[in-house]
Amino acid sequence: MWIQPKELMLPLALWTGEMYSKYFVMQKRRGHGESRSLGSMLVSTYDSIRNTKPAPYRIVHQTSSSDVSYEIAIGITLDDIVKDWEWLQVNLFGVLNEMENDVEVTNFTIYKIKSLFTQNNQDNTGETPDFKVKTSQFRQIFKMPEEERLVNSYSATYIESKIPRQGQLYISLNHVCFYSYMLSQEIKLIIRFAELENISRSINTIYMKTANSMTYNFTLLFNLIEAHDLIEQLNKMAIQKLMHEPESPVVNHNPLNFVRFGAKASNKPVLLRDLTARQKSEEFRAYFHLPQREIIDGKIKADIWTPYSKRFNSGEIYLTTNFFCFRSDVKDLVSVVIPMKTIKSVEKKDDGQRRYDNQIVIFTSDNVPFIFAKIIDRKVLISKITDMLSSTDIPVNRERAKYDISWSKQTALLNTFKTQFSADIKKKQELKLARWEHHFRDFGRGISMFRTTDVINLIVEGIPDKLRQEIWLIFSGAIHDKENNPGLYEDLVEKAALLKNCAVHDEIDRDLPRSLPEHPAFQCTDGIGALRRVLQAYALHNSKVGYCQAMNIVTSVLLLFCDEENSFWMLAGLCENLLPDYYEDKVVGAQIDQGVLNELVDSHLHDLHDHLENLGVIKMISISWFLTIFMSVISYESSLQILDCFFYEGAKIIFMISLQIIEWNRDDLLKCQDDGEAMLVLQSFLEGIYNPEYQVPPSTDKRKMDRPQTQTVQTLIHEAYTKFGEEITQQRIEELRNKHRRLTFRQFDIDNEKIIVKAHVQNAYFDRAELHMLLSIIREEKLALKSVQQQQQKMQSYLSEAPQLLQSPTRSGPTDVMPGGGGCGRHQAYCINFEVFHTLFLELAPWRKCVAVDIAEKLFRLTDKKGNGYLDFGQLINAFGLVCSNKSIEKLKLLFMLHLPPLLTKAETVRSRRPRPATKDDAEEAIEAEDFFDEDASESIEALPSPSDHNFEALMNSTHHLHTLAGISGNTFMDLSRTTPNFSLNSNASSLAHRTSIFYVDLPAALHGTATCIEAGQDDDHDIGLRQQGRYESIDTFSDISDLGASRITPPPHASTSAVAGAAVAGTAADQMLNVETISNFSQISDLIAATGNERADSNATDTRSLGSLGYMLDQPDEGASAAGRQNVPNMRKENFGLLWQSIIEIMDCGQDEEMKRAYENLIELGNSNMKQQASLESFTQLNFGGSGDEQPDSNGNPTTPAAEPSSKTRLIVALEEEMRQAKLKAAGETGAATTTTSGGSSSSTNNSVAWHISINQFIATALTCERIDKAFQTCTNIVEQIEQLQKKRRKCLSTDYNY
Amino acid sequence: MATRKKSLLKVIILGDSSVGKTSLMNQYVNKRFSNQYKATIGADFCTKEVVVNDRVVTMQIWDTAGQERFQSLGVAFYRGADCCVLVYDVTAPNSFKNLDSWRDEFLIQASPRDPEHFPFVVLGNKVDLDNRQVSTRRAQQWCQSKNDIPYYETSAKEGINVEMAFQTIAKNALEQETEAELINDFPDQIRLNSENNRPGNADNCQC
Q1: Contacts of A700 in chain B (CB under 8 A)
Q2: Which of A398, A470, A495, A741 has a Cα at 20 to 30 A from A366?
Q3: Which residues does the UniProt record annotate as the domain Rab-GAP TBC (chain A) (predicted)?
Q4: Residue in B2, B69, B102 closest to A674 by CB
């Protein structure tokens, strides 16, 4: 990167030369790279301490005749600098060599580089090269993606266990980072803004505390306040982002790109200036009640001439695109807002008599002059105003679509429903009106009136009814929005009226008569209709807020005094500016302000605070106070006057009044024993507040009249101003809001976590603490900023690998509402997408070492039952829990299933056969071994005797015995030993239907059908196959499988003798044949269906459905408890098995030992023998009986988990027996099938049955004979430890490289 | 935590917006019906002295806001509740469907000691209206499925069954009271601003 050439006096200090030419040296900073000499250590320490850290590479221009050298280029990486060096070589070396003297060479070089520098920087935002270097250093050190923009960096000291570490504090949009390199000790810290729980500062230190209780202290010598304010601001932005778009981080918004006048061009980074301007603008907007989009363009000192006092007042002029504002230095003395569009002319005024220089006069369209003096940069100001005037937003009069709806705008309801005042009060109103008129004469009227303490005094006394609309509109700032959007309200009303079946409208309708029922205007259609239109229009306008109860109450009062459209804009101003976030989900704004009030009570009414806190009163009372600006708790006549003040003062009046109310009731509150009493005290007090100057005729609600009058609202407001007006400022409230925004969100998280943990505490795998840890890591990971680019790359690689995944992760979000109503929101907050799952799996799960197959992806797809690309927390627990548990058999089962199609596609198995550089030796070995056995496959063992029927029955009995011994019971086993097929089928049907109800398959009916089929099958063997297939046509593929699973369980085991049972066996045999063959390869399902006449071409649909069935099989409640639970898991093909074995080797993370090799050989042979079924049965029995008999003592001696051993062994044997029984039935079926070969379906499946395959039970049984596998799979993973490690790693910014 | 006298019962009324919670409370406490209630924001509150089993007890009735976005505020009101009244509108099937989530939400947020046997009472309100849509049988079935919750059909307007329902409420609440012996096990809210409190403490509660 070329830089502005800089003179260097000591070109060699701290640098080492890397490349030389006659006039140039390319240098490298010491202390970078591998060298660990003392020198480089010192240099890097020095660099770290110095505020500006130089780039590691630079090019220096030097001549032999001069001592002065010039730094002309810097580079972050060697490549960068080499590029520049090459440019020099090509373009300069030749030219320079031809020059005559060194001076000329230097001049030419510098000129050239300067032009290069300016050329390269033209497209830029005006960042200094220093800052660019810092930015790239920041990205490099902390591995931040391009999107993460650095705001600024500060030299800071971090104190870690009493050792100070000097380094750089980097502040970016989403993170505070710290880097220190001292005496070859490196420290990296990354703190996300969104996880900060507390921020505070002392004289020279910034303290930060994160949600997981980590504390950080940074000492800054310079710019402490700037850094602190920046952190506060960015934290606020991060939390607001969380509030509105929880899934995305803060990214750089459109830069403002304005040029500030009056101030010298600062050398601060652009983004910092931008953010500071935003911060300032926010305060400014809040003060003048200007629309959201106004950004201060600049400010300048000036004096304003106030005609009413006939003097000049010093203050500052603020300029924005649409407004010219002035604020006096003396608080509240005077302020003015002049919309740019009303400015008619700006003139210099240089009358000789005036002793003030630099005056300007601004004339507004009403011909009112505003005189400003003592403007230092008058010229700049005038030209600026001229610029602004030309660029002022002109409201577009939009062409409105015409709707067929007739309605008319309601004017202020009080015009129709006049309040009947007594003569006395009428007189008072007129008196007030006269005073206001008088005030207007002196101070002006309309937006640009001089706003002084006089107007506050007038407002506090109550605005007369006739003026309320005008004054409210001006001081609330709603008038600006209204004028900028002509016609918008009408448009919204009509659009809203056309909406049908809108839930929000129902809610609004329900509340219409419950807004201000005591007022006659809302007892008839005029008021109700207007209220409906305003609320509906606003719900449409701001869908984020929609409709919140309390808005109706506020709006109804507005409607009494203002016309519909004005009411609408005032409501908008209320929701968006005056009471930020109040009416949103969870009324969070109001909850934040409850925290603020609580803290204010603590500092102003300290003696009461603890008592109220104990009673929990503040939380209870204040919600309605805040949300309705007291209108639901104080009588309407009285609350009006508070509303008057509110529109002028903003939210601070609510706090003042609240404090005053609490203070007045101090003694009574202190006596209260419980929350109810306190509520009563406050309730009766508030109901007793009355307004003697605005008495309306006796209300119909007698309840109110019963209450004794307590205080006048005038006294209340007056007292509140005198007691708290000085101390409670907008600024203070904003500061407290920042703090409580953090705390409130933290509290939400804590509450959510508690509730979710409570809901999931009954799971099979994790305890409470582990669940909490899991939730916290999910939260952190979800917040983690990831490069969009990286994500895309990753996504693409997945897409190419596994096309099935395409649908799921690209979906927008968990849109389908989960059952459970109210709780769904909080559960959704912890739903994770594939991205997060993948990261977590690779970081936490013990199977992360697996590289041959992307286990995470398979597991995600298996677990994501809805197929929407998201896992809820319960699903995550199941997936992670099993993987981390010590249930070896189930883990093996899971692993087996993960390697089945459709999870493991053919494409993957083929690809993995190709040699890959990343593949470990073991894996290759495995493949070779597999190939070797492939050839040997013909040498299968055939000569082994088959078990007789008698043997079989004995086996079954022993199974039974073992089951009871192991204490295993359950549906499946019960079903196994039943003799009546009908009964078991029914029980199965109900249980299956229950479990699979989420799939919306009409299972009971299907099963019933199967049941009748089988019964019928007793009469006519021949038909069964067909009829069963007939059933498959009509029901979904998935239900086929579970259906098959169910009917498969039914064959009577004691069926060796009786004829009936024999028929049943034959019946199930046909079924069996289908079963084995269909499921053995899922891709065949569609073939099969096609063969039976159903033209289902949607192979994708089949795919997801079979996925669902796999998931379902995994979820069977008695998984692992008996082999029967696994029996409908399809068999595995050889390619997949190769990968499976490879995965096992990788998971165990050590080479194969002899035992494992032997197991592998066994399995391969088993698979071979499975090809010839009759033979397989024999060989299998032989093999495994020999095996398990030998193995038994070995395993018993195994000290790892002696308790678990017997049951797992039992299961193993059960598995074997089950397998044999299956095989036997299969054999029986073979004959049946031979006689009934009728359709193409069976012929195609015959082909398949010949292929190499292995069943899950064979796999598990054999795998477990290996001591090492057994041990490895019985190891429990401590998830908490893993998570803590990961959190530590994240904070220290150590990343893991995943093997993609 | 404030200690409460034994003669105080805290009753929470929950249910969708505009099912008549405020009206029921006022009908019971003031024997009056008005169609001029404002929508309840936050919570409303009434007390009434009742005689149950020859004992005079004060019943604190908390009437809550029905809109969903106010639900998260419930914690503040629910603590120490002795009985929870679930109200639905017999003319609004949705308000009946939502009873489930109201009940769950209450149990989650209030964390009573024995959630299985915490006394609930279900009231089907507005039976005076003609366009009834939720049948008595359906409501009764639901109540039975939830551990036999007592069920009453009321009309706050006509005052039908209101007195009786609240008598049951008082009686059941009092039973709960004697069983639990007033040990309030609701965990104190975590105060984030106090120094000694770390999120880890959240796990220590007995809930």
Answers
A1: 36
A2: A398
A3: 462-650
A4: B2
